[in-house]
TrEMBL record:
This is Uncharacterized protein. It comes from the Bacteria.
C-alpha cells in the first residue's frame, strides 16, 4: 500500500494477511488500518475473531452464516484519533465530562466519521455491525 506510512501505529492491533486489525467499540465492530479489498479484509477480520477464541467472525458478530452477505458489511472510509469529545473546548463543556473520561481510559479512541475540519485522518476498512 502506497500510503501505509500515513497509518498510525496503534497499540492492540494484530496483523493477519498483512492487514492490521482491532476490535472497535463494544458491539462487535472491527477496524483494519488502510483500505483493503473486501474479501481480504473479511479474511483478516475472520482470522482475528478466531484468534480471540471465537469459532469464526459469525460467532463474534453474527451475520447468519451468509458470507456473501458479510461482504456488504465491509466499508472503507476515513478515521481520526480523538483525545476529547466533540464538545471539549466549548463554554458549555462539562468539567467532569463522562465521555472525555471514558475516552481517556483507552490508549486510543478512533472516530470513523471525521468532519471536514479533521486534518489527521487516515484510511480504514470497517466491519460494521
Ligand atoms: Zn467531553
Amino acid at each position: 500500500m502506497a500510503n501505509s506510512q500515513l497509518l498510525p501505529d496503534l497499540e492492540g492491533f494484530e496483523e493477519f494477511f498483512g492487514i492490521k486489525v482491532s476490535t472497535l467499540g463494544e458491539d462487535g465492530g472491527m477496524v483494519a488500518l488502510g483500505h483493503h479489498e473486501p474479501k481480504r479484509a473479511l479474511a483478516a477480520f475472520n482470522a482475528y475473531a478466531k484468534s480471540l477464541g471465537f469459532t469464526d467472525l459469525d460467532d463474534f458478530s453474527s451475520f447468519g452464516g451468509d458470507w456473501a452477505k458479510a461482504l456488504d458489511r465491509i466499508r472503507t472510509g476515513q478515521a481520526v484519533l480523538r483525545k476529547q469529545c466533540e464538545y471539549a473546548g466549548r463554554k458549555d463543556h462539562e468539567t467532569n465530562c463522562s465521555e472525555c473520561a471514558q475516552m481517556s481510559q483507552f490508549p486510543w479512541w478512533m472516530d470513523c466519521s471525521p468532519t471536514v475540519d479533521d486534518v489527521d485522518t487516515f484510511p480504514v476498512t470497517n466491519w460494521e455491525v
